[in-house]
């Protein structure tokens, strides 16, 4: 397959626009292009594809958008306006933490004079590799990669170990030392440690951790687990052996991100000694497990307190409220651009790992409001 055929559709569309409007005989700076609606009709392309093609042409300094007026050929020489491209590739483009990351990446990239391409790998490693290739062919000078979580057996033959060794690729939030790439990460060991300390400070001693298959290399979760164990040991609180392997989720459940919350709740209730707290993977997982526990008649947090991570929107108004964390994904995105810019400018040539701390956010459920009938009126009692 030729390199041209491997180019993404929006890049090919940009080339058509160049040929038919920008490079045509008689074209002059300041000429107006057809509207996006007209381009969709003429070129037979979707609205997102046309928009991405125009963004690419703007990044190359060939066209400019005038608010409320349209798209025009640049009036300044291309050599004076050409802008460098960066790429951000993530597993799921609409995931809340990815959107937070994008805001920081885009803001810092724009401040430093870069335009940004973004794409979703849909949690598929092969598609991730294809996107890296496509974005490099489209002119990206460097890539911020939020990698798909690998299984252990995939790491040795991973494309990140063998391809594009001279291309600046910064790993975001998740990474492996074997890839020998710069990484920007959160301090998840410390976060797991401090979450466990917070639970113990509120009287919990039998604290369980929702385990992840040891061969599923989700670095953040494994480091939080290590922090949980270290905090328990440092506090002199024994961790029962049963707590170290109380549940094993299937590979299918992990890769599809499905969580059998009711199974988790049943296994949790079978632990001996009985658990009084559980540290879940993240907030959505915590919500699902809390609902399953309530369905079983378990009082949360009185009998079992569940903790999550990431301060996701779905948890902010959920009751009963539970502890979480406040990772600054926007700031991590800014740091990733700083690291990438250092590589592109030659200020950094050796892969380094940059670690950002994460605070614990303690949440308590709101008091239950009970309306008590009483002669002559009612009394609202906040228990």
Q: What strand order characterises the main sheet?
A: 4-3-5-6-7-12
As a whole number of angstroms, the C-alpha radius of gyration is: 26 Å
Largest sheet: 6 strands, parallel
Q: For the terminal residues, how far apart are their CA atoms?
A: 69 Å
CATH topology of the largest domain: Rossmann fold
**Helix segment tally:** 16
The outline comes out as elongated
Could you name the CATH homologous superfamily of the largest domain?
Answer: Response regulator
Classify the helix fraction into a percent range.
Answer: 40-55%
Q: What's this, in brief?
A:
The chain has 383 residues and is an alpha/beta fold.
Protein model, in words:
The structure is a single chain. With 383 residues, the protein is an alpha/beta fold. It is built from 16 helices and 15 strands. The strands form five sheets. Strands 4-3-5-6-7-12 form a six-stranded parallel beta sheet, sandwiched between helices. The protein has a three-stranded parallel beta sheet with strand order 8-9-10, sandwiched between helices. Strand 1 (63-66) and strand 2 (70-73) form a beta hairpin. It starts with a helix and ends with a strand.
Write the SSE topology:
Layout (H helix, E strand, L loop, with lengths): L2 H4 L2 H14 L13 H8 L3 H13 L3 E4 L3 E4 L4 H4 L2 E7 L5 H16 L2 E7 L4 H13 L2 E6 L6 H4 L3 H4 L6 E4 L10 E4 L1 H14 L5 E3 L9 H16 L16 H5 L5 H9 L7 E3 L3 H13 L9 E3 L5 H4 L7 E2 L3 H16 L8 E4 L3 E2 L7 E6 L2 E6 L1
Helix pairs in contact: 2-4, 6-16, 10-11, 13-14
